[in-house]
Amino acid sequence: MSTTPSGLAEIVLQRIVNRTGRRIQDLAVEIGAACIVLRGRVNSYHVKQLAQTGAQEALPDVLLENAIVVE
Questions:
Q1: Contacts of 69 (CB under 8 A, 6+ apart)
Q2: Nearest-angstrom CA–CA distance, 66 and 62
Q3: Which CATH number is 10's domain given?
Q4: 1 confidence band (pLDDT: 50, 70, 90)
Q5: Number of domains forming the structure of the chain
Q6: Which H/E stretch holds residue 27?
Q7: Using CA atoms, how far apart are residues 57 and 25, in angstroms rounded to an integer?
């Protein structure tokens, strides 16, 4: 498992895509010093929650900000 920010972002991104079935538009995962930030656009709160759950499964001990917008 890669521990570089880009490697961690790719792991989280892949887990989210697996959980959501590519239903998030403009999905981005930002790895910061203090937390992970999820960005993108979805059409339901359910998909937003699936993305959050996927990110938490990939990195359970890291703080998470879910900035995905429900349109």
A1: 40, 41, 42
A2: 13
A3: 3.40.1520.20
A4: low
A5: 1
A6: strand 25-31
A7: 21
Note the pTM of the prediction, 2 decimals. Answer: 0.91
- Report whether pLDDT(2) > 80: no
Element (H, E) at 69: strand 64-70
**Which structural domain, as residue segments, surrounds residue 16?**
5-70
- Asked if residue 35 lies in contact with residue 9, where contact means CB atoms within 8 angstroms, the answer is no
The amino acid present at 14, given as its one-letter code, is Q
| Calpha distance 68→48 (Å, rounded) | 6
Q: How do residues 9-42 score in pLDDT, each as one tens digit?
A: 999 999 999 999 989 999 999 998 889 999 999 9
Residues whose CB falls within 8 Å of the CB of residue 9, separated by 6 or more in sequence, listed in order:
29, 30, 31
